[in-house]
# Entry
Amino acid sequence: MTTTSASFLYRQLRTIPLTFLWAHLFWTKCYSVGDTLGASMLPTINVSGDWILISKFHVRGRGIRVGDLVSYAHPIDGPNVNVVKRVIGMPGDFVVKDPSDGTGDMLQVPKGHIWTTGDNLPHSLDSRVYGPVPLGLVRGKVVAKGLPWKWIKNPLTND
# Structure
C-alpha cells in the first residue's frame, strides 16, 4: 500500500465517525421524521401513510403557541408512545373542557402544561380524556407533512 492510498484510507476512516456524530446530533437535537397512524388529526394528517417532520427546537414547549401541532410522549401509555395533537390552551389559559359534550365546562390550564385536542374530535383521545399535558413531555413541533414536504402553518397566525 502506498503512502497516498494509506493517507486516503485514513482520511476516509476518520470522517465516518464524524458523519455519524453529526447525523446523531441532527436527529436528536434538530429534527426527526416519523410516520403517522390514526384518524384523530383528520383532515390535517391522513389516517396512515403521512410522514411528519418534527422540529426539536420546540422541545418542552419552547416557542409553542395555541394552534400549533405538537408531538409529545403519551401521558398515560408512556414514553414509547408518541402523540400528535393541536395546542388549544397554554399555561394560564381558560379552555372549554370538552366542546363535544355541550356543557361548556371550563378549566384553567395549569402552569407548566398545555391543553391539546385532535382536529377530528370524535376520533381523538386527548386532553379531554387525560387532562393537561406537561410541557416536559413535548418532543417538538410538527412543521411539515408528506413526501414531498408540505409546510404546516398555524391557522391562527399569519406566519
